[in-house]
Design goal:
Layout lengths: L1 H11 L3 E4 L16 E4 L3 E7 L5 E9 L5 E2 L8 H10 L2 E9 L2 H6 L4 E3 L6 E4 L17 H11 L3 H13 L4 H8 L1 H7 L8
Parallel strand pairs: 4-6, 6-8
Antiparallel strand pairs: 1-3, 2-3, 4-5, 5-7
Helix pairs in contact: 1-2
């Protein structure tokens, strides 16, 4: 909750955001400007400094070649976090399931979440959110997430080995998808396109 508020403050150009935090949520790393402020009838809130990352990398359903980005918001209400991050950042790179025509974007204006003026670069990356879900496209691959969790809970060397085998030894995203094979991808696929 506090992180989202910090991005929203950055996106709005505000120096800080006011949030209500439980005592266990108070950060210990000095990143936050901790000040308890009494809000009439609301109890104390905490002022947290805005976040303005240099670069945001987010994944969406579709974009045109100009960088107008669309999401099926009915399927992905949580995209608001990604939007706050994008709007708070100095540069925005968006990977998308597919590049579509400007006409396809114009047919569904209510799904446009970022205008070309807010995006520095757009990259077509089918299954770009995998092994996590991309709503209305494919589900989370729990087998891969389980493998990752197991590697993370093990030794540092074990995780480095897993990371090398699963990520770094491959040339690119296409090589990763090719290694997985269509059978694995079809097992998680709901549908390939919401715009076709």
């Amino acid at each position: 909750m506090a992180a989202l508020a910090r991005f929203e403050a950055g996106a709005a150009g505000l120096p800080f955001a006011l949030v209500r935090l439980d005592p266990g949520e108070l950060p210990q790393d000095g990143v936050f400007a901790i000040e308890d402020i009494a809000v009439q009838g609301q109890g104390p809130v905490t002022a947290v400094r805005r976040l303005e990352p240099d670069v945001a990398l987010i994944h969406a359903h579709a974009a045109d070649i100009h960088g107008n980005v669309q999401m099926d918001l009915e399927a992905h209400a949580d995209f608001a976090r990604d939007l706050a991050l994008a709007r708070a950042s100095r540069h925005v790179i968006v990977s998308v399931e597919q590049i579509v025509s400007p006409q396809a974007i114009a047919k569904a204006p209510r799904n446009m979440v970022l205008a070309a003026t807010e995006v520095d670069c757009v990259v077509e990356a089918p299954y770009g959110a995998y092994p996590l879900a991309c709503e209305n496209r494919y589900d989370t691959d729990n087998h891969v997430i389980g493998s990752y969790a197991e590697a993370m809970s093990g030794t540092a060397d074990g995780f480095r080995t897993w990371l090398h085998h699963e990520v770094r030894s491959l040339d690119d995203h296409a090589a990763y998808l090719n290694r997985l094979g269509m059978r694995r991808l079809q097992a998680v696929t709901i549908r390939r396109s919401v715009y076709a």
